[in-house]
Amino acid sequence: MVFAHGFGCDQNMWRLVAPAFEDCFKVVLFDHVGAGGSDPLAYDPVKYSSLQGYAADVVDICRELELESVVFVGHSVSAMIGVLASNAAPGLFDKLVLVGPSARYIDDGDYRGGFSASDIEELLVSMESNYLGWSRQMAPMIMGNAEQPELGRELSDSFCRTDPAIAAQFAAVTFLSDNRKDLSKVSVPTLVLQCLSDVIAPEPAGEFVRDAIAGSTYVVLDATGHCPHLSVPSATIDAITPFVQGP
Q1: What residues form DSSP beta bridges with 190?
Q2: Is the distance from CB of 51 to CB of 179 less than 8 angstroms?
Q3: Among 120, 100, 103, which residue's Cα sits nearest to residue 202?
Q4: Which residues constitute the domain of residue 97?
Q5: Do residues 206 and 196 lie in contact, with contact meaning Cβ atoms separated by under 8 Å?
Q6: Most C-beta atoms within 10 A of its C-beta, which of 23, 52, 62, 207?
Q7: Which of 32, 75, 76, 86 is catalytic?
Q8: pTM above 0.85, yes or no
Q9: 144 with 199: CB under 8 angstroms?
Q10: In Å, what is the CA distance from 176 to each residue of 67, 103, 105?
Q11: Does residue 32 have an active-site annotation?
Q12: Residues with Cβ < 8 Å from 162, sequence gap 6 or more?
């Protein structure tokens, strides 16, 4: 069972969820290149100019560890990274769990990703001009759960530990991506976990992912914010468990 973190985060974000599966699975945690304890010298701006570069890393990790029948759990942008990895390596993945996924963040015609093109442009400009300030302002909004301010501080601190140059490129790759056409190629059972109120991946985005992946399972968590694995870990575990332990 491989857990992949979202933008600005690291593997520590899974600490409240991953241990619940250690009795039944070999649990694998890792940091995307440029995040957490990864080697910053391994970052290649050409390779990581698209999500395909991150997906290739996921496949490499699984093959290096000789994993089989992988259950991939991806949060936020890593949900689409998991989709790409599964499509690129047929037979390697057994199931996908997509937590707060969005196939495209920018609205497009009838499609609702939650942001306008100008919203994303403003976000990226703000990040490049003052990354630390952007992190302090945005993290609590992304996390939600104002009654648990420590969660917003944790996410902000995580953002601030990321190299600003790498973070800026990863943000652009993330928020300008469009993986809608990749969803129909998914051939493994998929669970889509959606929060009731998520400023990054609103319900219409999750519903689109659900509808585009044939036979997917859709669960709406009674939770706010974009990080249910931190804000409501028990509910997240309860939603994932029957899916990964079922047929």
Answers
A1: 96
A2: yes
A3: 100
A4: 2-245
A5: no
A6: 62
A7: 76
A8: yes
A9: yes
A10: 31, 10, 7
A11: no
A12: 8, 34, 35
Element holding 103 (H helix, E strand): none
CATH number reported for the structural domain that contains residue 226 in this entry: 3.40.50.1820
Q: Answer yes or no: are the C-beta atoms of 192 and 218 closer than 8 Å.
A: yes
Tell me the two tokens of residue 114: 């939650």
DSSP, collapsed to helix, strand or coil, labels residue 106 as: strand
Verify whether residue 110 is a known catalytic residue: no
DSSP codes, 45-71 = TTGGGSHHHHHHHHHHHHHHTT--SEE
What's the CA angle centered on 72, arms 78 and 179, to 5 degrees?
40
H-assigned helices in 31-177: 51-64, 77-88, 117-129, 131-143, 149-160, 164-175
pLDDT recorded at residue 161 = 62
CA 157 to chain centre: 18
Look at the block and give the residue holding tokens 């990703």: 113
Total domain count, the chain? 1
- Residue 76 DSSP one-character state: T
In whole angstroms, give the CA distance from residue 195 to residue 206: 9
Query: Which candidate, 70, 72, 57, places its Cα nearest to that of 4?
Result: 72
pLDDT tens digit sequence for 130-183: 777 777 766 666 766 566 667 666 666 666 567 778 888 888 999 999 999 999
pLDDT of residue 155: 65
Check if the beta carbon of residue 162 is closer than 8 Å to that of residue 34.
yes
Structure tokens at 225: 């914010």
| Cα–Cα distances in angstroms (integers) from residue 214 to residues 74, 82, 85, 145, 221, in the given order | 18, 16, 17, 32, 21
Reading the block at residue 140, the tokens are 């609590």
226 included as an active-site residue = yes
* Catalytic annotation, pick one of 198, 216, 229, 231: 198
Q: Which of 122, 120, 126, 82 is nearest to 103 (CA)?
A: 82
